[in-house]
Amino acid sequence: MDFNLKRLLTFPNILTFLRLASSVPIYFLITEGLWRIAATFFILSCLTDFIDGAIARKNNQATDFGARLDHASDAVLATATIAALGTQGVLPGLLGVMVPIAFLQYFLDSGDPGNAKMVPSRLGKWNGIGYLLISGISLIWLAADQRILDEVTLLFFGSFLCVTTALSMAERLYLFFTRE
Questions:
Q1: Is 87 helix (H, G, I), strand (E, B) or coil?
Q2: Cα separation of 11 and 7, whole Å?
C-alpha cells in the first residue's frame, strides 16, 4: 500500500475522511433525538460517498488506500447510524451488531490490502445500499415528522436486512472455504 502522504491526502480522500468523522456526531444527534440535524449530516455524508470516487477517477487519484478508506467510511457511517436508530427503537438492534461484522468479514475476505480489489458479493452490495437507504429513509421520516411509514414497516425492512446480511455472510464464508 502506498503511504506517500501527499498522494493519500487528496481531495477525494479528504471527503471520505469527513464522511468517516461525521459518523460520531450523527450517532449522538440521533440518540438525542435531533432528527433534522442528524438527517442533514447524514445526507451530506452520503453525498460525499457519491462524489469522492468519481472525483478520484476523473483526476487519476484512485488508489487501493482510497477504496479501502471509502469502504471503512461506509461501514462506520452505516454502523453508527443503524446502531443509533436501534437505540431509539426505529430499527432492530440486531442489525446494528450485524452490519459491522458483515463489513469486517468483507474487508478481511478481500485479501492483501496492497494489491487486492475489493469485490463485494451481489447480495452484499445490495445490503450495503440497503443499510444507507433504510438509514436515510428513517432519518428523513423522523426529521419530517410525517408518518408516511409506520414503525412496524421500518422494523420489518430492518429485520429483512438482518436476514439478507446473514445470508451474505454465510455465502462469503462458504466461498472462503470452497476456494481452490
A1: helix
A2: 10
- What's the structural domain count of the chain? 1
Domain that holds residue 157: 5-178
Q: Which three cell numbers stand for residue 173?
A: 464464508
Distance CA 16, CA 46 (A): 10
Euclidean distance between CA atoms 60 and 62, whole angstroms: 6
pLDDT average per 10 residues of sequence, the chain (180 residues)? 69 94 98 97 94 92 88 94 96 96 85 55 89 95 80 92 96 82
pTM: 0.88
> Looking at residue 161, which CATH number applies to its domain?
1.20.120.1760
**Cell numbers at residue 70, please?**
471509502
CB within 8 A of 24, min separation 6: which ones?
Answer: 80
H/E segment holding residue 28: helix 11-31
